[in-house]
Design goal:
about 575 residues, Beta-lactamase, single chain, Penicillin-binding protein 2a (Domain 2)
Amino acid sequence: MKPEGFHTRIYMVLAIISAAGLVLMAQLVRWQVLEHQRMQDLAEREHRDEQVIPPRRGEIYDRNGHLLAGDIVEYDLSASPKIVTAPQETAQKLSELLDMPRVELLRKFSTHSEYVPIATRISQSVAQEIQSWENVGLKLEQRTRRVYPEGELAGHVLGFVNSTGDGFYGVEGYYNNLLRGKPGLEEGERSPFGDIIPLGIGRYVPPKPGGTLYLTIDRAVQYMVEEEIKQAVWRYGAQRGSVIVMNPRSGAILAMANYPSYDPNAYSRVQDDKIFFDPNVSEQYEPGSVFKIVTMAAGLDAGVVTPQSVVYDGGYIEVGGRLFYNWDRQGHGSVDMTTVLAKSLNVGVAQVAVGLGKERFYTYVKRLGFGRLTEIDLGSEGPGTLKTPQDASWYASDLAANSFGQGIAVTPIQMAVAVAAIANDGLMVKPHVVERIVNGDEVIEVQPTVVRRAVSEATAHTLTNMLVTALEQSDSQAVVPGYRTAGKTGTAEIPVPGGYHPTLTIASFVGYLPADDPQVLVLVILDRPTTSRWGSKTAAPTFRRIAEQLVVMLDIPPDEVRVALKDSKVTE
């Protein structure tokens, strides 16, 4: 007889097997009945793949259809070493095609990794050659890269696109959602090599390409302006310079340039990312005497002064317990308002501000757009800094200081838009750099937008004539031969802790022409020129060089020709 313990062990084994069988049956019931749908979905997911299809980013063109920004298709090449066909032959062909060492390629093919990268940024023609080999162990992944065919041209206006496809700064940043489009989706059965089977069961949602932008920028004008501001920075020993060229009637920006700038193609190699900010819209500065246009516009419009109004200039004026002097520290006696502009007299223009009073003065300053965004369609616009009597930091002396552009900070685009309102019969228009948007079948033409009436038409015409006369009286280097030119110089001291720098300045000039029918406005700013600190000696001649080329490029006839043409049409 077998011992009793033997039977006990048999029963225990049978009990364990039975328990295991019950557990297995329970699991089968759970998987096949209770959780059937979940397990089926899991199995399907194991054999299916889902890929996001990136959309094509919209192109950017200048006003004449020249490409400024677009995408090119490139490829990344990788390999699955275990399934590369004919490794020796493949390494030799890739070595010749990609200019890579054959030994390095063989080393990659001999690794035990499931995946090894081979090369990036392969051109489309090279990728097509590799695809024709039908080597299952090689995989090409499509990539798009943003390129800027003109290099640095309009770099600040355009901005750039990073490696994830997002736009930053300029129009790339401002219109990023429109330009980037909407991604598509491809879902289907996966082959043993990880590719979606073309004839398998799946779904396909096509990507929606981004919209296309046509800018107001003229490529030829932009190039000329960039060259001129670069030469001006070198010629006058300045640290940097900026220019805005706009149509004062429509608000269209024809050119917007800075030196130094950067190449959007190589944004990742930029050492200091501060250069990405466009000084014309992002950075503020004290404008100096160009702001006298604003004060005089307010005085004329409010009826406080006329061009013939006379004030006495004793060389200084006290406002709010603070003494203010002329730039030359001289008194000029009895002077009219045009002479105040011609000689850029701080004392005279401060008297205009005092006559206006703080409430009216700052009402006009705000009406002409200061202390708020212009809402230009570019990324990272700044509002400037405007203190008013409602601010605790405002002092009574600020009224005089602000009247000639001291103690107030503006952006260049604000200054350009304010003066453009004077050129445009007193109507302020919204500045813009996009002229037309094409989004699928939809075409949107950007129309000029009048923001508000800043001053009356009569005031605008009166001030324009005063500015023309003032330039002629001062024998300004800004005057363009053959054209009545309206404008004003500025030489702003640079704030430093405890006051202002004794020698360094920001020199500027803003002007427009022809004065009786303004077609173009130009603002020139030179930061810390060293050959001369005065805007009349640096920014004004730079304005003239730019304007002399603009009248030719934009086909603006001289005054005599325009008057003759107008008279001939009248007689007809």
